[in-house]
């Protein structure tokens, strides 16, 4: 595997391989000196054309723990203001001998386009409404740490603004590939217009779905969406789909609560819920480093020097 | 010790420990290869919500010389624009396995609040008008390099806008804990409103204070304060409190001149004064790296692997 | 040699030394683990007061491949907003024990001024319209990889806005020192006002020059120049000096096409031309890392620990 552009690049088998590899890297991250020399001499560049603290730092941490060199540039501080084209930028970066580029971009398909131009490995760190594959992988990894490999029949409810969510898209693909049953929950205006072929059920009523849910996956509400006609007010949204303490009483006692972060406390999720014992939100973040180590290692590792 | 939030966390004994440790790290920084493996595998993140070249680079240099990995984010290039809460940000950073966060924030008390939320070590790199403890430690270290441990009875005059100065607050605490006698000098409008309990003398007349001063500590004037009614004009300020060559004639020949930088030459200090043989301003900067190495080592070092 | 401020610091002999050293570093960059410990423990800071992706990343890559520590600050995220003077900034950086500062600044002469103030090594990464010496060195290195040491009599045409080009200035000096014959080509308004003493020929007609050109060096057009009266419209410029496929038919089959990047495709160079087999534009970028390794090594390397 050369790139990670979307979940389809992996399939169920590839996902399984990433998750097993992440197990061993999770063990590395818990050591006193949480580093291995696996990618010494490799260089990973973060190209973030959209703000992100958590994803950028997670990838950088992962790369450093593999002993890779890291460099970063964000849209603000680079030649992009000079009107340098994306093509020129990535060709330049590649010509310098960079081994992998981690890209976030607000336009869907940008990582794919870059992968067509150059020989370095491309990791999609989120492109428009399209995909965010490492998020889905770390989510699957987090579930697997709690439930083992038994994804078959697991009932996952993904709640929120599915229409504009790359996290939802990647998770639907990954979780259904692994055998889980995904239900999308939200107001009709926030569902994707064309759901044919998606291996999912749809519900507009969270309260009905909760009692049979094993995993409640709460999406982040983008406050800026409120400008749009199709979005209910935050208050109205919170009343119908916000995950409150009262609502949680309907969720089975052994269910898990997930969120890709950062949470809007009081909007899609109550502060108390984020701290509920069933919440694995902080684990998701911690697992993100191990999963990204696994992805970078799969793309750049020679197979020798393996995490020892 | 887990955090360094303010000078009171240390007390006289803790300050002494930092200073002695900094001695050995100062020796490290003068080696041909000025690095020790003391913090290999540790990760230090700089979270600067306020601009700072010198403090950020000084901490990064210190961390790298201890072989720690470093990452940085500033308010502009992060998810902060997304409205991510401080709580979410630091929890995320911690969940990734970061060992220490170096925080600068324009609001007093932010480092303390963060320390209450998470398990990673927090270093206060300046919070509002409150404290800037590593500055006071490097100042004390610089004095100790020149005067030895005899702080008792040392007469220190801190001159300028004491009211808005976290550097002054931390220095008053550190220097008086070590036994020095501190006099605050400046116009009444730039003195803190409530000085009860501060172990200091006050003077509004620099010329009177100078002849009996061992250490002249000149604070930086924030030009933006001029907008405020309580601030005299820069010209008026410079006339009464600016450290000019003429004024320096009153300062004993063996006194020391200090400034936390960057200087406003021609305002609080004349260009010639900054270059006076009694000035130790550049030493302060150099010592800052050794002192920050000592602080990071005290917070994160296991006690084994010690600077060898 | 302590600084690299301009090509004159090197002379023909120094240029030759950089190019020979770069040969061995180019070999390093092609290894599986493209790193050498030559500058372990040295710290290189990038101070970029002007946007640049490629130059900053190229220097950082070079420094990391020599095992130096790197730090970066750009005008936006530093104390520069506080009105800190350049003098204070560089003195601070030096006092921290930094070994080299790589400077880009929009004003000519800034690197020279800094070199006069401090003891650290200064590398000019582009100053105003003045010089960009590492660009000229990587260009010479690229030519040498194709043509060997036989610069004598090599006919180089530098085409474009020579007046505002630091790349042109540095290349004229380097190439003529090595024995090449340089012709500057462009509209009279974009020629430097005073060319006396420059070892060059001038032409206003690219089509006349092309058939006898060994190396066609195309400068980047700065679109913002269009505001100025002396600049023709982009369309007019492209018609007379744009390097199109038709125009290329006049260029000898064994000529080389160079560009410092990033290209404005469709303005000074057609997309197809940039991909012409005679184009060595991507090689220039790749060679840039090896040449910058050579420069940093010459300035900071002890002579021991040499690339092994």
Polypeptide structure, described:
The structure is a homotrimer of 308-residue chains. Chain A has 308 residues and is of the alpha/beta class. Chain A folds into two domains: 7-132 and 285-300, 3-Layer(aba) Sandwich (Rossmann fold), CATH 3.40.50; 134-280, Rossmann fold (3-Layer(aba) Sandwich). Chain A has helices at 11-29, 54-65, 86-95, 110-117, 133-147, 166-178, 206-209, 234-241, 245-248, 271-274, 281-300; strands at residues 43-48, 69-74, 100-105, 121-127, 155-159, 181-185, 200-203, 215-218, 256-258. In chain A, helix 1 (11-29) packs across helix 5 (133-147) and helix 1 packs across helix 11. Chain A is globular. Chains A and B meet through helix 2 and helix 11 of A and strand 2 and helix 3 of B.
Summarize the structure.
The structure is a homotrimer of 308-residue chains. By secondary structure, chain A is α/β, with parallel strands linked by helices.
Question: Based on the structure given, which CATH architecture of the largest domain in chain A is correct?
Answer: 3-Layer(aba) Sandwich
Q: List the strand order in the largest sheet of chain A.
A: 7-6-5-8-9
Provide the CATH superfamily of the largest domain in chain A.
Aspartate/ornithine carbamoyltransferase
Structural class of chain A: alpha/beta
Distance between the ends of chain A: 22 Å
Which ranges of chain A are low-confidence, i.e. pLDDT below 50, for 5 or more consecutive residues? Answer: 77-81, 303-308
Q: Main β-sheet of chain A: number of strands, strand sense, barrel status? A: 5 strands, parallel
Kindly provide the radius of gyration of chain A, computed on alpha-carbon positions and rounded to a whole number of angstroms.
Answer: 19 Å
